[in-house]
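for the recovery benchmark. tokens below, seq after
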């Protein structure tokens, strides 16, 4: 009888040990990520605790069982200094595989799209949509004295370091890391296609080219006529004639909702008002596209000094070499607007 009892106890112990072993194995190595996780990226913010991470994984549908994830994390001593970033999580992974990936695996990248910014505030807001840092962090960094000293520039010309494009970055990158990337891209851009040599031939710095290009950017969205418009503005600069570009007045007043430049705008006292002050403004009035920058560097050689929108809906301009012809083009503009019921 005692022998049978011992045998039954041993069998029970083996069964219990097997069950515990199976439970432990399943906790660590059983599949715990869902089939749907391949459809989205996991975003881990700074300062996340292991409990908050477990809640996030559960609530966003990345894992099936929170308790087994927490037990595995404790056994693997994972929970302090959780990495910030975006991660691509595979479906049907175990807790061990998931934690190893979050601890040392590669981050997923995001596309940082840079374009159409007018001011540093605007730029900061756009940058913060793609990475973890907020717009205040970006703005403080861009306007910081250390940044200005590092770039050997002015606050007015920080924008010139941003070449509109789509860049692959990590979501966790800081404002300083983003700016370092922009410095590299800025250098790569200017040292390609003979851009530095072309700027020197115009007797202009990179910042001056970018600033003039920013005016082109806001004067026309028709790339085909940008080199001709660039030639007209360069001709004005050569003879000391004010640029008299409406977009500079809009930037000076910050009245970005204005549909037309009025007389009150023209008399707004600001170094950005090219109706009042000859030469270039202190810095760009917007982010300049590559097409606009290259239009300055490859400007048409002609005698035009004036341009006026055609008003026919094409978005194109008529050009003139003298004021009399320009005034005629202005009348054509008004007539075309009336024909189209726009005035």
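predicted aa per position
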């Amino acid at each position: 009888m005692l022998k049978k009892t011992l045998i039954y106890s041993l069998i029970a112990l083996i069964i219990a040990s097997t069950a515990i072993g199976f439970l432990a194995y399943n906790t660590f190595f059983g599949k715990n990520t869902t089939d749907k996780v391949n459809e989205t990226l996991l975003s881990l913010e700074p300062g996340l605790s292991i409990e908050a991470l477990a809640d996030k994984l559960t609530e966003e549908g990345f894992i099936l069982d929170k308790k087994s994830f927490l037990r595995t994390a404790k056994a693997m001593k994972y929970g302090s200094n959780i990495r910030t970033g975006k991660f691509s999580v595979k479906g049907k992974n175990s807790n061990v595989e998931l934690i190893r990936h979050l601890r040392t695996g590669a981050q997923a990248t995001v596309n940082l799209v840079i374009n159409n910014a007018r001011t540093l505030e605007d730029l900061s807001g756009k940058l913060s949509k793609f990475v973890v840092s907020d717009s205040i962090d970006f703005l403080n960094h861009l306007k910081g004295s250390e940044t200005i000293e590092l770039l050997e520039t002015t606050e007015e010309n920080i924008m010139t370091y941003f070449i509109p494009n789509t860049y692959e970055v990590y979501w966790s990158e800081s404002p300083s890391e983003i700016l370092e990337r922009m410095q590299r891209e800025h250098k790569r851009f200017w040292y390609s296609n003979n851009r530095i040599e072309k700027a020197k031939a115009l007797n202009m710095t990179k910042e001056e080219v970018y600033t003039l290009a920013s005016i082109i950017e806001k004067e026309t969205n028709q790339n085909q006529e940008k080199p001709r418009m660039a030639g007209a503005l360069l001709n004005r600069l050569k003879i000391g004639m004010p640029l008299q570009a409406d977009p500079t007045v809009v930037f000076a007043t910050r009245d970005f909702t204005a549909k037309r430049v009025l007389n009150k705008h023209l008399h707004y006292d600001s170094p950005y008002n090219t109706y009042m002050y000859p030469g270039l403004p202190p810095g760009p009035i917007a982010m300049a596209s590559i097409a606009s920058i290259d239009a300055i560097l490859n400007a048409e050689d002609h005698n035009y000094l004036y341009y006026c929108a055609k008003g026919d809906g094409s978005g194109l301009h008529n050009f003139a070499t003298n004021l009399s012809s320009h005034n005629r083009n202005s009348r054509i503009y008004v007539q075309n607007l009336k024909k189209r019921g726009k005035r």
